[in-house]
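Researcher: I'm preparing a figure for a lab meeting and need a structural model of a single chain. I don't have an experimental structure, so a prediction will have to do for now. The sequence is pasted below. Please return the structure as C-alpha cells so I can convert it later.
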Amino acid sequence: MKKIFFFLFSFLFVSFSLFSEVKWVKGDLQKALNSAKKEEKIVMIDFYTDWCMPCKILDKTVWQDDEVGKKIKGMPLIPLKLDAEKEGAIAAKKYSVKVYPTILFIDSDGKEIVRVLGFSDKETILKKIEDACKNNDPIEVLQEKYEKNKNDFESGLSLAQKLLSSEDNSSNQKAMTILKEIYEKDLDNKNGGRAKAFALGVSASINQLSDKLWTMFLSSGKNAREKEIKVDIFGLDENIDFTQFYKFQSFLYDGYIKEKSKELLPIFKEIYDKAVQLKDANITMDEEAFDRLLGFFSIDAEKWGETGETFADCCKEFAKGEKLLNEVAWYNYKMQRNLEESLELAKKCCEISNNAPNNLDTLAHIYMSLGQKDKAIEIEKMAIEEKPTLESTLKHFEKDELDQLAEGVEPKKKNLKRAIPEKNKGEDFKE
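Model: Understood. Here is the structure written out cell by cell.
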C-alpha cells in the first residue's frame, strides 16, 4: 500500500561526521579526477551546502551506514564531497548543480555520466551507484554515438535513461523525443528496443503525472478537511473556523477528478492495449511510478471510476514486485472487483515478501470478501503477530464487516456489511 515516510527531526541538525564509513576525498576535484584516471574508476560527487537539511539527513542515514561504506569501498569509484557554495562552487557552476543534495557521477575526464537529485533512501542510492558504475558511458559520448547512428538503439536507450534521471524539463523532453524515435522505428522490436522504449517512456510519463496529481492533492488539504479545522487564538472568545475553506477546496478537487478522469481514460486504455501486445517482450516498467499513481487513485477510487480501474488493470500487466502487486490487489478489494484474480495476486505478494504484515492484511481482506471468514481470520491473526494495530480489522471480520472499502462500494457477499468508519479517522493510506 501507499506508504508515507516521515523523517526524524533529530537528524536535521547533525553535522557531517568525520568518522563516516564512506571515505571521502574532501574538496579537491582535480585530485579525485587524477586518482580516477590512475585507478580506472569514475568519480561520485556529493554536492551539499551547510544549510541543506536533506543533505544532513543523507549523510546521517546513508553515507554513515556501515553497509553503504563497505559496498562503495568495493566499487570502481572515487567518492568526493563538495560544498557547492565554498570549495565546490566552481564545479557546481560548471555542472549546473541547482538542487541539493545532488549526487553527480563523472568519468576521469570530467564528463557527466548521470546524476541523482534530492534525498533518496539507502536502497535507492546503492542501486543508483551500481547502475552508474555498470553503465558508465558519459552522456556526451552516448549522444555522439546516437546522433551518428539513429539505429544504435542501445546507445539511444541508455542516453534517454540518463537524461530522464536528471529530472530537468529540457533533458526530459530530449529523452522522450529519443524514445519516440526508437519506438516508431523499431517495429520488429529488434533486441527489445521497441519494448524498452515503450517501458521507459510510459514509466517517465506516469511519474510526471503522479508528481503533478500528488502536488495538487497535498496542496488541497484533503486530509485536513476531513476534520474540524479550528484555531484557538489567545484573547478571542471564539475559535477561527477553517472548515468551510476546506469544503471549498474539496469542491475544486472533486471537479478536477471529474475533468481529468475523462481525459485520462482513453490514454490508459491505449497503454493497456499496447502493454498486452508487447507482453511477450518481457517489459520491465518502473513499478514505483505505477505504484505512486495507483495509490493516488486509491484515495478516491469511487470518483475515478473506470479510469482508475483501467489503470489498475495496466498495473496488473506490469506488476512483478510485491509493492505494486499489493497495491493492485488492495485497489480491487476497495472496489470489490476481480476478487478471485486479486486473491492470486495477494498470495504471490505474500510469497515474495515472506508474509509481510501489510500484505497478509490485504490477503485477509480479499478472503473475507470472498466469504471465507475462517481463512481471513487465520491470515489476519498472522499479520497481527508482526503488526498489533491490525487488531481492529480482526474485530470487523468477527462481526462480518469489511472496512476500508471505497465510499459507496458495497460488499459482494450479502452476508457481509460495511464497517462504520470512525469519525475523523482520516486514514487515506494503509501504512
